[in-house]
């Protein structure tokens, strides 16, 4: 699977296509994505086809930019037959490592998490967001059957508020 290509697209879309400003946190729910999350503003939705070794996969992303930080939830559905034979932990590691590599970052922490008995990975990294300075990347990635969810905050280190990142990451839930 070309996880790196998918992750590069995610980061590029976050940095180039995020919209909205403000700090009026709102609960956002996606019926198509089957999730609910609190975000600092109403997110913009975008979908892009990404070519992978498994064929073309649609990546759907919801993003908000606030004070030089981007809050992002994305999901992509991989072919069921491919995912039924994949090692979930290797998929999560690949997604996490791809995010950090594309960020040009260094891993600060990584730990196993779960969401409704589905495996996940929480991580943080430092790196460069742009030429503007040091960056921070924190996220959680979950594998739910053949769907990969990525919940990410990226931004300038001095602009990313820990309490906002925690609120965002902890608010992500699957819809019933």
How would you describe the overall organization of this protein?
The chain has 176 residues and is an alpha+beta fold. The chain has a single domain (3-174), classed as Mog1/PsbP, alpha/beta/alpha sandwich (Protein Transport Mog1p, Chain A, 3-Layer(aba) Sandwich). The protein has 4 helices and 10 strands. It has helices spanning 3-17, 80-84, 88-103, 162-171, and strands at residues 26-30, 35-39, 44-52, 55-66, 69-77, 106-115, 118-130, 133-144, 147-156, 173-174. The strands form 2 sheets. A 7-stranded antiparallel beta sheet has the order 3-4-5-9-8-7-6, sandwiched between helices. Strand 6 (106-115) and strand 7 (118-130) form a beta hairpin. Helix 1 packs across helix 3 (88-103). The protein is globular, with a radius of gyration of 15 Å. The two termini are 29 Å apart.
- Residue stretches low in confidence (pLDDT < 50, at least 5 long) are 1-22
SSE series: HEEEEEHHEEEEHE
- Which structural category do the helix and sheet elements fall into? alpha+beta
Shape: globular
Number of helices: 4
Q: Which strand order spans the largest sheet, edge to edge or round the barrel? A: 3-4-5-9-8-7-6
Oligomer: single chain
Kindly provide the radius of gyration, computed on alpha-carbon positions and rounded to a whole number of angstroms: 15 Å
How would a textbook summarize the main sheet? 7 strands, antiparallel
Look up the CATH topology. Protein Transport Mog1p, Chain A
Kindly provide the name of the CATH class.
Answer: Alpha Beta
Number of strands: 10
What separation lies between the terminal Cα atoms? 29 Å
> How much beta, percentage-wise?
over 45%
Domain count: the total is 1
Question: Considering the protein shown, what is the CATH homologous superfamily?
Answer: Mog1/PsbP, alpha/beta/alpha sandwich
Task: Write down the overall mean pLDDT.
Answer: 85
Instruction: Identify the CATH architecture.
Output: 3-Layer(aba) Sandwich
Roughly what percent helix?
25-40%
